[in-house]
Amino acid sequence: MKRSTDRILTTHAGSLPRLDDLTAAHAAVEAGEQAEVATVLTDAVGETVRLQQEIGISVPGDGELGKASSSPIDYGAWWSYCFQRLGGLELREGYGWITRDVQSSPGDVRTTGFGHRRDRARFEQAYDDPTSGIFAGGAPKPYPTAVAPVTYTGQDAIAADIRNLKAALDAHGYTEGFLTSIAPGSVVRIDNDFYDTDEEFVWACADAMREEYRAIIDAGLILQIDDPSLAENWDQITPEPSVADYQAFSRVRVEALNHALRGLPEDRIRYHLCWGSWHGPHTTDLPMRDIVGLMLEVNAGAYSFEAGNVRHEHEWKVWQDVTLPDGKVILPGVVSHATNVVEHPELVADRIERFAGLVGRENVIASTDCGLGGRIHPQIAWAKLRTLTEGAELATRRLWA
Description:
Layout: E1 9-10, H1 20-30, H2 38-55, H3 77-80, E2 86-92, H4 118-122, H5 124-128, E3 143-152, H6 155-171, E4 178-182, H7 184-187, E5 191-192, H8 198-218, E6 222-226, H9 229-232, H10 243-261, E7 269-272, H11 292-297, E8 302-305, E9 329-335, H12 345-359, E10 365-368, H13 378-399
Parallel strand pairs: 1-10, 3-5, 4-6, 6-7, 7-8, 8-9, 9-10
Antiparallel strand pairs: 2-3
Helix pairs in contact: 2-6, 6-8, 8-10, 12-13
Protein backbone atom coordinates (compact mmCIF):
# COMPACT_ATOMS: atom_id res chain seq x y z
CA MET A 1 0.00 0.00 0.00
CA LYS A 2 1.33 3.42 -0.95
CA ARG A 3 2.20 5.95 1.74
CA SER A 4 2.65 9.70 1.66
CA THR A 5 6.43 9.55 1.75
CA ASP A 6 7.13 12.72 -0.23
CA ARG A 7 3.68 14.25 -0.74
CA ILE A 8 0.13 13.88 0.53
CA LEU A 9 -1.54 11.17 -1.53
CA THR A 10 -5.24 11.23 -2.37
CA THR A 11 -7.97 8.63 -2.72
CA HIS A 12 -11.72 8.37 -2.02
CA ALA A 13 -14.17 6.19 -0.12
CA GLY A 14 -15.42 4.17 -3.10
CA SER A 15 -18.64 5.15 -4.84
CA LEU A 16 -18.39 7.62 -7.74
CA PRO A 17 -21.08 8.92 -10.13
CA ARG A 18 -22.45 6.35 -12.56
CA LEU A 19 -22.46 7.24 -16.23
CA ASP A 20 -25.98 7.57 -17.63
CA ASP A 21 -25.74 4.62 -20.00
CA LEU A 22 -24.64 2.30 -17.19
CA THR A 23 -27.47 3.42 -14.93
CA ALA A 24 -29.92 2.89 -17.80
CA ALA A 25 -28.57 -0.61 -18.46
CA HIS A 26 -28.91 -1.61 -14.81
CA ALA A 27 -32.44 -0.15 -14.71
CA ALA A 28 -33.40 -2.20 -17.75
CA VAL A 29 -32.12 -5.40 -16.17
CA GLU A 30 -33.98 -4.63 -12.95
CA ALA A 31 -37.17 -4.16 -15.00
CA GLY A 32 -36.70 -7.58 -16.58
CA GLU A 33 -35.60 -6.26 -19.96
CA GLN A 34 -32.62 -7.31 -22.04
CA ALA A 35 -29.61 -5.00 -21.75
CA GLU A 36 -25.92 -5.22 -22.59
CA VAL A 37 -24.30 -4.49 -19.24
CA ALA A 38 -20.84 -6.07 -19.52
CA THR A 39 -19.47 -3.90 -22.33
CA VAL A 40 -21.09 -0.75 -20.93
CA LEU A 41 -19.60 -1.51 -17.52
CA THR A 42 -16.09 -2.06 -18.88
CA ASP A 43 -16.21 1.24 -20.76
CA ALA A 44 -17.64 3.07 -17.74
CA VAL A 45 -14.89 1.83 -15.41
CA GLY A 46 -12.26 2.90 -17.94
CA GLU A 47 -13.76 6.38 -18.18
CA THR A 48 -14.10 6.67 -14.39
CA VAL A 49 -10.46 5.79 -13.85
CA ARG A 50 -9.46 8.19 -16.61
CA LEU A 51 -11.30 11.01 -14.87
CA GLN A 52 -9.55 10.17 -11.58
CA GLN A 53 -6.20 10.24 -13.35
CA GLU A 54 -7.02 13.60 -14.96
CA ILE A 55 -7.97 15.08 -11.60
CA GLY A 56 -4.87 13.69 -9.91
CA ILE A 57 -6.23 11.02 -7.57
CA SER A 58 -3.26 8.95 -6.36
CA VAL A 59 -5.06 5.69 -5.50
CA PRO A 60 -8.19 5.23 -7.66
CA GLY A 61 -11.01 2.74 -7.50
CA ASP A 62 -13.63 1.52 -9.94
CA GLY A 63 -16.24 3.85 -8.45
CA GLU A 64 -18.19 0.77 -7.31
CA LEU A 65 -19.67 0.68 -10.81
CA GLY A 66 -19.93 -3.10 -10.73
CA LYS A 67 -22.38 -2.76 -7.83
CA ALA A 68 -25.61 -2.25 -9.77
CA SER A 69 -27.39 1.06 -9.36
CA SER A 70 -30.55 1.71 -11.38
CA SER A 71 -31.12 5.30 -10.25
CA PRO A 72 -28.98 8.46 -10.15
CA ILE A 73 -29.83 8.68 -6.42
CA ASP A 74 -28.71 5.52 -4.66
CA TYR A 75 -27.37 5.31 -1.13
CA GLY A 76 -27.38 1.53 -0.87
CA ALA A 77 -25.57 -0.14 -3.79
CA TRP A 78 -22.44 -0.60 -1.63
CA TRP A 79 -24.55 -3.02 0.43
CA SER A 80 -27.33 -4.41 -1.75
CA TYR A 81 -24.82 -5.77 -4.30
CA CYS A 82 -24.12 -8.67 -1.96
CA PHE A 83 -27.72 -9.91 -2.36
CA GLN A 84 -26.70 -11.21 -5.79
CA ARG A 85 -23.36 -12.62 -4.62
CA LEU A 86 -24.47 -14.75 -1.69
CA GLY A 87 -26.29 -18.07 -1.79
CA GLY A 88 -28.74 -19.16 0.89
CA LEU A 89 -30.83 -15.99 0.55
CA GLU A 90 -34.44 -15.66 -0.55
CA LEU A 91 -35.85 -12.38 -1.88
CA ARG A 92 -39.25 -11.67 -0.40
CA GLU A 93 -41.73 -9.11 -1.66
CA GLY A 94 -42.95 -6.60 0.86
CA TYR A 95 -39.75 -6.58 2.87
CA GLY A 96 -37.65 -3.44 2.96
CA TRP A 97 -34.60 -2.23 4.80
CA ILE A 98 -36.31 0.99 5.88
CA THR A 99 -38.91 -0.77 8.06
CA ARG A 100 -37.50 -4.16 9.01
CA ASP A 101 -37.03 -5.78 12.42
CA VAL A 102 -34.05 -8.02 13.12
CA GLN A 103 -33.48 -10.85 15.55
CA SER A 104 -31.92 -9.98 18.88
CA SER A 105 -28.19 -10.40 19.35
CA PRO A 106 -25.98 -11.43 22.29
CA GLY A 107 -26.53 -9.14 25.26
CA ASP A 108 -30.08 -8.45 24.00
CA VAL A 109 -28.87 -5.56 21.84
CA ARG A 110 -31.30 -5.40 18.92
CA THR A 111 -31.07 -3.48 15.63
CA THR A 112 -34.40 -2.33 14.27
CA GLY A 113 -33.58 -0.82 10.85
CA PHE A 114 -33.44 2.54 9.15
CA GLY A 115 -37.12 3.27 9.62
CA HIS A 116 -36.72 3.00 13.39
CA ARG A 117 -33.66 5.22 13.77
CA ARG A 118 -33.66 7.42 16.84
CA ASP A 119 -32.58 10.32 14.63
CA ARG A 120 -35.70 9.76 12.54
CA ALA A 121 -37.94 9.70 15.61
CA ARG A 122 -36.43 12.97 16.79
CA PHE A 123 -36.99 14.67 13.41
CA GLU A 124 -40.09 12.84 12.22
CA GLN A 125 -41.64 15.82 10.45
CA ALA A 126 -38.47 16.49 8.48
CA TYR A 127 -38.02 12.84 7.51
CA ASP A 128 -41.65 12.61 6.36
CA ASP A 129 -41.46 15.83 4.31
CA PRO A 130 -40.40 15.03 0.72
CA THR A 131 -39.20 18.63 0.28
CA SER A 132 -36.85 18.55 3.30
CA GLY A 133 -33.85 17.19 1.40
CA ILE A 134 -33.61 14.08 3.56
CA PHE A 135 -33.39 10.93 1.45
CA ALA A 136 -34.98 8.17 3.53
CA GLY A 137 -34.08 5.10 1.50
CA GLY A 138 -36.68 4.96 -1.23
CA ALA A 139 -39.55 2.55 -1.67
CA PRO A 140 -39.09 -0.96 -0.26
CA LYS A 141 -37.81 -3.52 -2.75
CA PRO A 142 -37.66 -7.30 -2.58
CA TYR A 143 -35.55 -7.96 0.46
CA PRO A 144 -33.31 -10.94 1.30
CA THR A 145 -33.73 -13.37 4.15
CA ALA A 146 -31.24 -16.11 5.00
CA VAL A 147 -33.10 -19.40 4.58
CA ALA A 148 -30.15 -21.78 4.12
CA PRO A 149 -26.38 -21.81 4.75
CA VAL A 150 -24.87 -18.60 3.40
CA THR A 151 -22.32 -19.23 0.64
CA TYR A 152 -20.42 -17.07 -1.82
CA THR A 153 -21.73 -17.26 -5.38
CA GLY A 154 -20.28 -14.05 -6.85
CA GLN A 155 -17.17 -15.50 -8.47
CA ASP A 156 -18.03 -14.28 -11.97
CA ALA A 157 -19.05 -10.82 -10.75
CA ILE A 158 -15.92 -10.19 -8.71
CA ALA A 159 -13.78 -11.54 -11.55
CA ALA A 160 -15.39 -8.96 -13.87
CA ASP A 161 -14.81 -6.16 -11.33
CA ILE A 162 -11.15 -7.15 -11.06
CA ARG A 163 -10.69 -7.46 -14.79
CA ASN A 164 -12.31 -4.09 -15.51
CA LEU A 165 -10.35 -2.19 -12.88
CA LYS A 166 -6.99 -3.75 -13.75
CA ALA A 167 -7.47 -2.96 -17.42
CA ALA A 168 -8.34 0.65 -16.58
CA LEU A 169 -5.38 1.01 -14.21
CA ASP A 170 -3.00 -0.28 -16.88
CA ALA A 171 -4.49 2.00 -19.52
CA HIS A 172 -3.97 5.11 -17.40
CA GLY A 173 -0.59 4.42 -15.85
CA TYR A 174 -1.60 3.38 -12.34
CA THR A 175 0.26 0.77 -10.33
CA GLU A 176 -2.24 0.63 -7.46
CA GLY A 177 -6.02 0.71 -7.16
CA PHE A 178 -8.71 -0.56 -4.82
CA LEU A 179 -11.98 -2.45 -4.85
CA THR A 180 -14.56 -2.33 -2.07
CA SER A 181 -16.22 -5.31 -0.41
CA ILE A 182 -18.80 -5.41 2.35
CA ALA A 183 -17.92 -6.47 5.90
CA PRO A 184 -19.83 -9.39 7.46
CA GLY A 185 -21.15 -7.09 10.19
CA SER A 186 -22.86 -5.02 7.52
CA VAL A 187 -24.11 -8.05 5.57
CA VAL A 188 -26.11 -9.33 8.56
CA ARG A 189 -28.47 -6.39 8.53
CA ILE A 190 -30.57 -8.59 6.26
CA ASP A 191 -33.17 -10.90 7.83
CA ASN A 192 -32.39 -14.36 9.14
CA ASP A 193 -34.71 -17.36 9.27
CA PHE A 194 -31.98 -20.00 9.31
CA TYR A 195 -29.26 -19.40 11.91
CA ASP A 196 -30.05 -19.90 15.58
CA THR A 197 -28.10 -16.90 16.82
CA ASP A 198 -26.93 -13.54 15.58
CA GLU A 199 -23.31 -14.52 16.24
CA GLU A 200 -23.60 -17.72 14.16
CA PHE A 201 -25.05 -15.67 11.29
CA VAL A 202 -22.21 -13.13 11.41
CA TRP A 203 -19.52 -15.78 11.33
CA ALA A 204 -21.20 -17.60 8.44
CA CYS A 205 -21.21 -14.36 6.46
CA ALA A 206 -17.54 -13.89 7.32
CA ASP A 207 -16.67 -17.29 5.88
CA ALA A 208 -18.66 -16.53 2.72
CA MET A 209 -17.25 -13.03 2.11
CA ARG A 210 -13.68 -14.21 2.66
CA GLU A 211 -13.72 -15.60 -0.88
CA GLU A 212 -14.30 -12.11 -2.30
CA TYR A 213 -11.64 -10.59 -0.07
CA ARG A 214 -9.07 -13.15 -1.21
CA ALA A 215 -9.94 -12.69 -4.86
CA ILE A 216 -9.28 -8.94 -4.69
CA ILE A 217 -5.97 -9.30 -2.88
CA ASP A 218 -4.81 -12.25 -5.00
CA ALA A 219 -5.37 -10.04 -8.06
CA GLY A 220 -2.82 -7.55 -6.73
CA LEU A 221 -5.39 -4.90 -5.79
CA ILE A 222 -6.05 -3.11 -2.52
CA LEU A 223 -9.07 -4.45 -0.64
CA GLN A 224 -11.31 -1.88 1.06
CA ILE A 225 -13.69 -3.31 3.63
CA ASP A 226 -16.89 -1.25 3.78
CA ASP A 227 -18.42 -1.37 7.26
CA PRO A 228 -20.73 1.54 8.10
CA SER A 229 -22.48 -0.75 10.57
CA LEU A 230 -19.72 -0.31 13.17
CA ALA A 231 -20.81 3.29 13.74
CA GLU A 232 -24.25 3.32 12.14
CA ASN A 233 -25.89 0.43 14.02
CA TRP A 234 -25.89 2.57 17.17
CA ASP A 235 -28.73 4.71 15.83
CA GLN A 236 -30.73 1.63 14.80
CA ILE A 237 -31.09 0.32 18.36
CA THR A 238 -34.11 1.37 20.40
CA PRO A 239 -33.98 1.88 23.30
CA GLU A 240 -30.47 3.29 23.27
CA PRO A 241 -28.05 0.75 24.79
CA SER A 242 -25.12 1.52 27.05
CA VAL A 243 -21.88 2.23 25.22
CA ALA A 244 -20.33 -0.85 26.85
CA ASP A 245 -23.13 -3.12 25.61
CA TYR A 246 -22.88 -1.65 22.12
CA GLN A 247 -19.13 -2.15 22.08
CA ALA A 248 -19.62 -5.80 23.05
CA PHE A 249 -22.25 -6.19 20.33
CA SER A 250 -19.86 -4.64 17.79
CA ARG A 251 -16.79 -6.59 18.90
CA VAL A 252 -18.45 -9.81 17.76
CA ARG A 253 -18.58 -8.27 14.28
CA VAL A 254 -14.96 -7.13 14.41
CA GLU A 255 -13.84 -10.59 15.49
CA ALA A 256 -15.81 -12.17 12.64
CA LEU A 257 -14.23 -9.76 10.15
CA ASN A 258 -10.74 -10.56 11.44
CA HIS A 259 -11.58 -14.24 11.04
CA ALA A 260 -12.46 -13.56 7.40
CA LEU A 261 -9.20 -11.61 6.93
CA ARG A 262 -6.97 -14.20 8.62
CA GLY A 263 -3.68 -14.70 6.83
CA LEU A 264 -4.29 -11.87 4.39
CA PRO A 265 -1.64 -9.11 4.26
CA GLU A 266 -2.67 -6.10 6.35
CA ASP A 267 -0.73 -3.76 4.11
CA ARG A 268 -3.14 -4.63 1.28
CA ILE A 269 -6.29 -3.91 3.31
CA ARG A 270 -8.04 -0.69 4.26
CA TYR A 271 -11.15 -0.40 6.40
CA HIS A 272 -13.93 2.18 5.94
CA LEU A 273 -16.47 3.22 8.55
CA CYS A 274 -19.03 6.01 8.46
CA TRP A 275 -22.23 7.08 10.16
CA GLY A 276 -24.41 6.59 7.10
CA SER A 277 -24.45 8.77 4.02
CA TRP A 278 -28.10 9.80 4.01
CA HIS A 279 -28.61 13.56 4.39
CA GLY A 280 -30.27 13.64 7.79
CA PRO A 281 -29.51 15.58 10.99
CA HIS A 282 -27.36 12.76 12.48
CA THR A 283 -27.87 14.08 16.01
CA THR A 284 -27.86 10.57 17.43
CA ASP A 285 -24.54 9.50 15.89
CA LEU A 286 -22.17 7.69 18.24
CA PRO A 287 -19.03 9.72 19.01
CA MET A 288 -15.84 8.61 17.29
CA ARG A 289 -14.09 8.23 20.63
CA ASP A 290 -16.44 5.34 21.50
CA ILE A 291 -15.55 3.25 18.44
CA VAL A 292 -12.03 4.29 17.44
CA GLY A 293 -10.58 1.48 19.57
CA LEU A 294 -12.79 -1.09 17.85
CA MET A 295 -11.81 0.30 14.46
CA LEU A 296 -8.14 -0.12 15.27
CA GLU A 297 -8.75 -3.76 16.28
CA VAL A 298 -9.56 -4.56 12.65
CA ASN A 299 -6.58 -6.23 10.98
CA ALA A 300 -6.06 -3.59 8.30
CA GLY A 301 -3.20 -1.35 7.28
CA ALA A 302 -5.32 1.77 6.77
CA TYR A 303 -8.47 3.24 8.29
CA SER A 304 -10.95 5.46 6.43
CA PHE A 305 -13.47 7.56 8.35
CA GLU A 306 -15.63 10.67 8.16
CA ALA A 307 -13.84 13.85 9.23
CA GLY A 308 -15.13 16.53 6.89
CA ASN A 309 -18.83 16.86 7.58
CA VAL A 310 -20.21 19.23 10.18
CA ARG A 311 -21.26 16.49 12.60
CA HIS A 312 -17.83 14.86 12.84
CA GLU A 313 -15.17 17.35 11.74
CA HIS A 314 -14.34 18.26 15.35
CA GLU A 315 -13.39 14.65 16.08
CA TRP A 316 -9.90 15.08 14.65
CA LYS A 317 -9.13 15.82 18.30
CA VAL A 318 -9.60 12.12 19.10
CA TRP A 319 -6.12 11.58 17.69
CA GLN A 320 -4.65 13.80 20.39
CA ASP A 321 -5.33 10.92 22.79
CA VAL A 322 -5.27 7.87 20.49
CA THR A 323 -1.98 6.50 19.22
CA LEU A 324 -2.00 5.22 15.66
CA PRO A 325 -0.23 1.83 15.69
CA ASP A 326 3.14 1.66 13.97
CA GLY A 327 2.94 1.01 10.27
CA LYS A 328 -0.72 2.04 9.99
CA VAL A 329 -2.21 4.81 7.83
CA ILE A 330 -5.36 6.91 8.19
CA LEU A 331 -7.59 8.08 5.33
CA PRO A 332 -9.60 10.92 6.86
CA GLY A 333 -12.44 12.42 4.88
CA VAL A 334 -11.48 16.00 4.09
CA VAL A 335 -14.29 16.66 1.59
CA SER A 336 -17.84 15.55 2.32
CA HIS A 337 -20.73 13.87 0.55
CA ALA A 338 -23.11 15.60 2.96
CA THR A 339 -23.19 19.04 1.33
CA ASN A 340 -23.43 20.48 -2.16
CA VAL A 341 -20.98 23.19 -1.13
CA VAL A 342 -17.58 22.47 -2.65
CA GLU A 343 -14.89 22.83 -0.01
CA HIS A 344 -12.20 25.45 -0.57
CA PRO A 345 -8.71 23.99 -1.17
CA GLU A 346 -7.41 26.01 1.78
CA LEU A 347 -9.92 24.32 4.08
CA VAL A 348 -8.98 20.92 2.69
CA ALA A 349 -5.30 21.67 3.32
CA ASP A 350 -6.05 22.79 6.88
CA ARG A 351 -7.89 19.55 7.59
CA ILE A 352 -5.04 17.47 6.19
CA GLU A 353 -2.46 19.35 8.23
CA ARG A 354 -4.33 18.77 11.48
CA PHE A 355 -4.09 15.02 11.02
CA ALA A 356 -0.51 15.16 9.76
CA GLY A 357 0.49 17.07 12.88
CA LEU A 358 -0.97 14.33 15.09
CA VAL A 359 -0.07 11.06 13.34
CA GLY A 360 2.73 12.11 10.96
CA ARG A 361 2.47 13.35 7.39
CA GLU A 362 3.59 10.00 5.97
CA ASN A 363 0.63 8.32 7.69
CA VAL A 364 -2.11 10.45 6.07
CA ILE A 365 -3.82 9.87 2.73
CA ALA A 366 -6.48 12.49 2.01
CA SER A 367 -9.88 11.02 1.19
CA THR A 368 -13.63 11.65 1.13
CA ASP A 369 -16.04 11.16 4.01
CA CYS A 370 -18.07 8.56 2.17
CA GLY A 371 -18.97 7.64 -1.38
CA LEU A 372 -19.90 10.55 -3.65
CA GLY A 373 -21.80 8.56 -6.26
CA GLY A 374 -25.57 8.65 -5.82
CA ARG A 375 -25.39 11.19 -2.99
CA ILE A 376 -24.70 14.46 -4.82
CA HIS A 377 -24.85 15.61 -8.44
CA PRO A 378 -22.04 14.17 -10.57
CA GLN A 379 -20.75 17.62 -11.55
CA ILE A 380 -20.40 18.51 -7.86
CA ALA A 381 -18.87 15.14 -7.00
CA TRP A 382 -16.08 15.55 -9.54
CA ALA A 383 -15.51 19.15 -8.36
CA LYS A 384 -15.07 17.84 -4.82
CA LEU A 385 -12.43 15.37 -5.97
CA ARG A 386 -10.63 18.19 -7.77
CA THR A 387 -10.62 20.39 -4.67
CA LEU A 388 -9.38 17.36 -2.72
CA THR A 389 -6.29 17.11 -4.91
CA GLU A 390 -5.78 20.89 -4.89
CA GLY A 391 -5.94 20.92 -1.10
CA ALA A 392 -3.50 18.02 -0.92
CA GLU A 393 -1.07 19.96 -3.12
CA LEU A 394 -1.30 22.97 -0.77
CA ALA A 395 -0.76 20.78 2.26
CA THR A 396 2.20 19.09 0.59
CA ARG A 397 3.92 22.41 -0.03
CA ARG A 398 3.46 23.39 3.60
CA LEU A 399 4.34 20.04 5.17
CA TRP A 400 7.47 19.53 3.06
CA ALA A 401 8.56 23.18 3.06
